[in-house]
What does this fold into?
Amino acid sequence: MFSYWIGKLIGKDIREVRDGNPGAYNLFKTGGWFFGFLGGFLDFAKGFFPIFFLQRSGVLDNFYLSLSAGFSVLGHVFPLFLNFKGGKGLAVSFGCWTALTYWEAPIILGAILSLLSIKRFFGKEPSPQEDSFKVLIAFSFLGPYSLIRGRSLIVFWLLNYFLIIYKHKIELKKFFKLKGA
It folds into this structure.
């Protein structure tokens, strides 16, 4: 929720922009690239560093590391400090996946999201509904990856995937309604 607090510090309520999400993208839209990047980086770090240090300490096995990563995202999307109305968890998810997979999963996510976003360079900015669908597709690819990588990673993928779907449910419903699916 760093993006929300940074927005408050610069006098902006980022929940009043675009989709009302208190995340880095809306901070970018209201406060500019510097503050948007800062908020996204801090949310990424919030997911990365706890899992990274737990992993390096050897205190937890892979199953509990995956469970811890899932709870990191859960705490971000349902924060006590914002009455359980947090962000969508993308930056925190990237941080957790980076710590657990040494950049493999973020490269997969980044490549898929980049391919799906090519038309952005040739046309108008996509709607929140289109962005949510792209995120759903990208995170879907992490399921088979998790199966290949190891069963313990499936725990995190399932928690993460369903949290992503839940936090994007309004946009996804609108997307599928618009597409007639």
